[in-house]
Each structure stands twice: as structure tokens, then as C-alpha cells.
Design goal:
Oligomer: heterodimer
Low-confidence stretches of chain B: none
Helix content of chain A: 25-40%
Number of helices of chain B: 9
Strand content of chain A: 15-25%
Largest sheet of chain A: 10 strands, mixed
Largest interface: A-B, 53 and 52 residues
Number of helices of chain A: 13
Shape of chain A: globular
Mean pLDDT of chain B: 91
Radius of gyration of chain A: 22 Å
């Protein structure tokens, strides 16, 4: 049996986009407008963030963090819970580069507007620089290594409040210190009367209608049960705002007959294909305590990559190193001596890299590594190795070297040892977060939406998430998602009142 | 209730695990139970065709060394088993490379998520972060004010 319901505005998703939209629309509730947020994942209670790797992955990530591209050569990580990916990122809060927004050439999208809104969210989310005394050695070695290798690392602004340095950001902060939408925007919205329904999977859209399945809480799993009874719902709405992220929103629109034929839908998918690089020092360093991501080196404009400090947990570290066997194990046994760098390539939207759905409506991401991306990853790996060695590392694990372990005495041969010929998909580990595109903004006839997230030809539907990006952002995207979502919500408010 | 995926291919899976993570050779019965339970949980969330592919791939690995070494994979000497797996890892066929990558990832999932293994590696991340290290005397410089920022 299907329950029929009505709302004025339905927001699908509760991550950076959905959270920002929910908060921005919350004042309308006082005017009698019913705003409903539907989140596919569960809401976790504070005590459920244990920081234990085996415990958290399934509760936080789509497919437990193991979502693979169609050919199985890259793992995509994105959150699926109350707060979306803002629960599982490290809180790095960067404003979009001017050059990127200008290059997007979206009519009506002005850089200063994106910047202004990003700064508002930086204030709301308590974004600040970590005091140097709280920066761990893993990060300091990166900073010093960059300096000695002739680069200038920059410090990340972070959205933390009461950080205790657990280093467990990517497993959801166990100390409620990360100011994601689950801590800031969603609670604000709920206090103002916005209803958030978790475990609510939107199956498809029909004309001004969302068809929803609310799931029961499976036994032995984390998270609160939904406030709605399990079952099927048909929710009529005057306005629907899709905020399910690049993959979620694209897949939803693709499996909905009312939107499936939209020109450009699912296309212009980009991400930041990444390697996790590790290097061994001759002594223990503080790597698994302290905020994991204090510094970055931005080479996006010049060489198509960004290096970021990082620290991952034993399984994720093991998985992301290339190969297996004794050498691999030896490096794992050196865990307390490991320094880590995350290498992110900045790809470009190209034909063929796109999102589709299979016969069951499940998202399928088609992705081919362009020669430019491979070149960027290899260049980034060489630079990282130089930074590691400059910081005093004994040996470096480079996925695009074969064998991957490079001793210090091989440092002068990096260009020979690390090269594109070793970029063999399926053998080396590549993962990506920062998933973008699929419902790109652009002029009518080119974009799926305009610069305010209005879907062309579907007046009751808006998009407000990273799927709007017409090309790679080249940095960590959450602030830009929030800024764009705020623009979308502002337009909805204005149109509603007029 | 879903049946075990590994049951039909356990000797091969364990032989692969020995090559992927040599420390698994010294795993106790309890350690193996924990490793395989984690793998089974991960596989249970995957589509049936993925589980079937894995079993087929393990069968392939088991019999592949017969022509060259005259023995099944699960009976090979360490160096030979390693050579077989490395050869497959570098296969010209993406499907085979992916298979090896998936298999080694499952073994690592089962092994490196075990709390006692993580402890043995020296992994010490803890929700109390700096406060815990201050208690051990490693970071006395951290003041409560800093920690609260």
C-alpha cells in the first residue's frame, strides 16, 4: 500500500547541498510552507561514531566505500547518511578558484557571488586555521619537505569546533567536532520546523511527485530508525530540489521518465582520481593523532594536480598501496613511521566519462583515465617522492613505479622509476572523492540547468549539489556546493514570494 | 539465509591470503574465522554475479599452475604461488588484473581491520586524540585551550 502525502517543497539529500538548501528555506516554514528533506541514509547518534574502521565504513559510505566505476578500475567514496559526505570529509574549506568559475562560463554565475556565499558558510561553520601546536609530524614533514624541495605548502582552513585530534575524520568525527551539515545546517533547519526523514530512498520522480521507499532499520546496524513507518510513499510537492550529489541526483533523474531525456543528463562527470602515497621514516612520527589534513600544495593550474597531507587507517592504507606480499607487509608493519600524501589529479569533463543507470536504476559511472590525468598522477607522484625524500624518508611507495618501493638511493632516478608505462589500471589502486557533474549548469541547450539550478523544461525541479559543476572544481568542493545551493534556495524563496 | 561464498574455495582463498599478507600464515583459528567473516560480510552486500565471479576466479587460480608446476595453487611452494599471483596481477587482460586486485583487497579487508592486527602494527588512533598522547607524556605541550579550539 502506498501512502499519499503532500508537501510544498521536497529536498532530496542532506549533504552540503541539501543541508544548505534546508537551512536557507527554513524561514519559510513560519509562513506555513511545509519543507521536507528526504535522506536515503540513517542518522547516527553521537556514541555510534566509534572511529573503528571495520565498524564505520558500512554506516557511512555508499557500498561501504567500495563503489566501483563500470570497468572496476577506480573506487568512488561518497557518504550516505544524515549529513551526506560532510560527515566523512576532513573539513577542508577552500573557496573556489577564480579561474575555474570564470572558465565554467555559466551565464549569471559571478565569481564574487560564489566567494561571498562561501565566506558566509565559512563563518557559519567555524572555519579557521589550526594552531601550529596541534599540527602533527605527518603534516610538518610535508610542510618542511615542500620547503626543502622548493615548493610552498599552504595551510588548509578547517571547519572544526573542539577538535581533539583523533585523526579519525574520514570515519566521522567521534567528538562531534566537524561542522558538517549534520552539526550546523540540518539542526538549524529542524529547529525552524523543516522535517528531515531518514532511510527515505527516492525511487523516482513523476510530475511534481516523489515516489519514496522508507526502509526499516536492519538488525545490528547503526543509526536511528526513520521517523516514518517503513513502506512506500507518494509525495506531491510544488517544488522538488534534488541534492543527492553528483551520482545520486544524476541517477535519480535518469531513472525518472519525466527527466530521463534531458539533454546532457549524466554527462560532464569529473572527479579527482587519487593515489595514496606512503613513505617510511627511520623513527616513529605522530601520524595517527592530530588533524590529518593541515597542508596542501596546489599545482592544479600548472600541472593538473593537488597534493594534500592525509592519514588513513590500516585497511584503507593497505588497499591503496600497489601490490601485495612481503614488501607490502613490511611497509604496513612500519605504520608508526609512515608519512602519507594524497595525490589528486584534476581531470576535465570529456565525452564518455558519464553517469548512467542499469536495469535496476542503480548508478553506473563510466570513467576512462585520459592521458592528461595519467600524466598528472605520474608528475604528482614524482613531486611527492621528492617531498618525502626532502623530508628525510628512507623509502617511498609509488604506485606508478614497478616495483613500487623506491629507496632513498634511488631518489635521483625518480623520472626513470616513476613513469606512465606503469599506470596499469586494475593493478594499481585509484580512488576518488569529490564527485562532480552530471546535471551541469550552462546555457539552454547545453546545460541541464541554468546558473540557478533550474532544470530546463521542468519548472518544478531544481538541482543544488555538486552535479551542477560543468567541469572539475580542482579543489575540495563542499564550500562551493553550499554556495551554489544557497543561490538555488534564494531563487526558490524569491519565486515563492512573488 | 545466504550461504558461504568461501566454503567451496577455502583452501585456495587461504593460499592466496598467505601470498597477499604473509602474516596470515600464523593466524590462529580464531583469526581465520574473523578474517573470513569480514570477507563474507563484504561479499554479502555485493550482487550474486560478483560473488560467482570470485568463486570462478579462485577455481581458475587453483588449477592454473597445473600445467607448469604439476600442482594446484593451494599446494604450491611459497615462491611459486607468489610467482603465479604476480603473473596474474600483471596480466594483459583487465578482467584478470581486476580479479587479483579484488581478491587481495578482500584479504586485506579481512586482515587489516582486525583490532589486534591494527594494534600489532602500532596503529594507535583514538577518539581522545592528543589528550591520550598527553597522558602518555608524548605531547605535554598541548594545553586544554589549544585542544578546545
Amino acid at each position: 500500500m502506498t501512502t499519499e502525502l503532500a508537501a510544498d517543497i521536497v529536498v532530496i539529500g542532506s549533504g552540503a547541498g541539501g543541508g544548505a538548501v534546508a537551512e536557507a528555506l527554513a524561514p519559510m516554514v513560519a509562513q506555513g510552507v511545509r519543507v521536507l528533506v528526504l535522506e536515503q541514509g540513517a542518522k547516527l547518534e553521537d556514541h555510534e561514531f566509534t572511529g573503528i574502521e571495520a565498524d564505520m565504513a558500512d554506516a557511512l559510505y555508499e557500498d561501504g566505500g567500495g563503489f566501483l566505476t563500470a570497468d572496476g578500475t577506480m573506487t568512488l567514496a561518497f557518504g550516505r547518511l544524515y549529513g551526506g559526505s560532510t560527515v566523512v570529509y576532513t573539513g577542508t574549506s577552500l573557496v573556489a578558484p577564480t579561474r575555474v568559475i570564470r572558465k565554467w562560463s555559466v551565464p549569471g554565475l559571478d565569481y564574487r557571488d560564489v566567494e561571498r556565499r562561501s565566506q558566509k558558510f565559512m563563518a557559519d561553520n567555524h572555519v579557521h586555521y589550526l594552531p601550529r601546536v596541534l599540527v602533527n609530524e605527518n603534516n610538518k614533514l610535508f610542510f618542511n619537505g615542500c620547503y626543502k624541495a622548493g615548493f610552498k605548502a599552504e595551510q588548509f582552513p578547517l571547519n572544526l569546533r573542539g577538535c581533539r585530534g583523533s585523526s579519525l575524520c574520514n570515519l566521522g568525527c567521534p567528538n562531534a567536532a566537524k561542522m558538517g551539515t549534520h552539526r550546523v545546517q540540518l539542526p538549524n533547519a529542524e529547529r525552524a520546523g523543516v522535517e528531515v526523514v531518514t532511510r527515505a530512498e527516492v525511487l523516482r520522480l513523476e510530475e511534481r511527485t516523489a515516489l519514496v521507499r522508507v526502509h526499516d532499520k536492519p538488525p545490528g546496524t547503526k543509526g536511528l530508525p526513520s521517523t516514518w513507518a517503513p513502506g512506500e510513499y507518494r509525495i506531491g510537492a510544488r517544488m522538488i530540489i534534488a541534492c543527492g550529489g553528483s551520482i545520486g541526483t544524476s541517477a535519480l533523474l535518469l531513472r525518472s521518465a519525466v527527466t530521463a531525456q534531458l539533454k546532457g543528463l549524466g554527462e560532464r562527470f569529473t572527479c579527482h582520481p587519487a593515489h595514496i602515497l606512503v613513505a617510511e621514516h627511520d623513527r616513529d612520527i605522530t601520524n595517527d593523532v592530530g588533524h590529518p589534513k593541515s597542508y596542501y600544495l596546489d599545482r592544479a593550474e600548472d600541472e593538473g594536480y593537488v597534493l594534500e597531507t592525509c592519514m588513513y587507517f590500516p585497511f584503507i592504507t593497505a588497499k591503496n598501496m600497489t601490490g601485495f606480499g612481503e614488501e607490502h607487509s613490511m611497509l604496513m608493519r612500519a605504520f608508526p613511521r609512515l608519512q602519507m600524501i594524497l595525490v589528486l589529479a584534476c581531470d576535465k569533463a570529456v565525452p564518455g566519462n558519464r553517469i548512467t543507470v542499469d536495469g535496476n536504476g542503480k548508478a553506473v559511472v563510466h570513467y576512462t583515465f585520459t592521458p592528461e590525468v595519467v600524466r598528472s598522477l605520474v608528475a604528482a607522484t614524482r613531486t611527492s617522492a621528492r617531498i618525502f625524500f626532502a623530508a628525510g624518508a628512507l623509502r617511498v611507495h609509488a604506485p606508478t613505479a614497478d616495483p613500487p618501493l623506491i629507496d632513498r638511493n634511488g631518489a635521483y632516478r625518480l623520472d626513470d622509476l616513476v613513469h606512465e608505462g606503469n599506470f596499469q589500471t586494475g593493478r594499481i589502486s585509484i580512488s576518488a572523492a569529490h564527485l562532480m557533474g552530471g546535471c551541469a549548469m550552462g546555457p539552454e541547450g547545453v546545460g541541464v540547468t541554468d546558473g540557478r539550478g533550474r532544470v530546463y523544461g521542468v519548472p518544478w525541479l531544481r538541482v543544488a549539489d555538486s552535479s551542477l559543476f560543468p567541469d572539475s572544481l580542482e579543489i575540495n568542493p563542499y564550500l562551493t556546493v553550499m554556495a551554489l545551493a544557497d543561490r538555488v534556495a534564494e531563487t526558490v524563496r524569491e519565486e515563492w514570494n512573488s | 539465509m545466504q550461504t558461504s561464498v568461501l566454503e567451496a574455495v577455502r583452501p585456495t582463498f587461504r593460499a592466496v591470503a598467505h601470498v597477499v599478507v604473509p602474516e596470515t600464515r600464523s593466524l590462529s583459528a580464531g583469526g581465520w574465522t574473523a578474517l573470513e567473516a569480514a570477507v563474507e560480510r563484504a561479499l554479502a552486500a555485493r550482487p550474486a554475479d560478483v560473488r560467482n565471479q570470485l568463486v570462478t576466479f579462485l577455481h581458475l587460480i587453483e588449477y592454473l599452475p597445473m600445467p607448469r608446476f604439476g600442482a594446484r595453487f593451494s599446494s604450491l611452494r611459497d615462491d611459486r604461488a607468489t610467482a603465479v599471483l604476480r603473473w596474474l596481477e600483471h596480466s594483459k587482460l583487465l578482467l584478470i588484473r581486476r580479479g587479483v586486485w579484488g581478491l587481495r583487497t578482500l584479504v586485506m579487508l579481512g586482515y587489516y581491520t582486525q583490532p589486534e592486527v591494527q594494534h600489532a602494527l602500532g596503529y594507535r588512533a583514538h577518539p581522545d586524540g592528543w589528550t591520550r598522547r598527553r597522558r602518555t607524556g608524548e605531547h605535554s605541550i598541548i594545553s586544554p585551550q589549544h585542544a578546545a579550539s
